[in-house]
Amino acid sequence: EDKVVQSPLSLVVHEGDTVTLNCSYEVTNFRSLLWYKQEKKAPTFLFMLTSSGIEKKSGRLSSILDKKELFSILNITATQTGDSAIYLCADHSGGGADGLTFGKGTHLIIQP
Amino acid sequence: SQTIHQWPATLVQPVGSPLSLECTVEGTSNPNLYWYRQAAGRGLQLLFYSVGIGQISSEVPQNLSASRPQDRQFILSSKKLLLSDSGFYLCAWSELNSQPQHFGDGTRLSIL
Questions:
Q1: Interchain pair A88, B104: CB under 8 A
Q2: I need a surface site. Which of A1, B31, B67, B110 has the fewest CB within 10 A?
Q3: What pLDDT, in 10s, does the model give residues A37-61?
Q4: Nearest CA to CA, how far is B95 from chain A (Å)?
């Protein structure tokens, strides 16, 4: 059975700090790993990672995958209060129609 | 561009009552469709997925069922709700297998 573990479960930092969120996975037939941001309702897609060592970047957010050690990190630099959210990590395995297996998420709070 | 709609946004139902949640996608054809549930303290759990009209696969045994009567319509149902059916229900779509899934705004279901 696939397993996705995120850490920390919650994190409180001050505006302007840099944060690193962790995601480890144990899957068979791995295809990709995805990051989502969930504020109040719908998780919104951030990144999909399929290859080791290739950084994906979008503004102040970046993410990288290590397929040997089975983990991924999500970095946010110069955090802003609008970055406060739950960040979800999910693996995309070879199961039927590639349903996602999610971790419990990291609840990130940015204090002004 | 593609959009996904879910309704209702919130629902309060008594134990033993029926349920029907609806999800529709616009701007794409033959999408993969998914139902997830997010329970308190737990990660998003895949309930059902569909790769085409009338094709439904269930990931976990439960009190719920799903149907896909039209290409871009996905319905989650129950004949008799249980207290354990409470949670946040999210519909998602993707264009193909191994592509990112995009989520609707969800339905918060409370069972009394």
A1: no
A2: A1
A3: 999 889 999 999 998 888 999 999 9
A4: 11
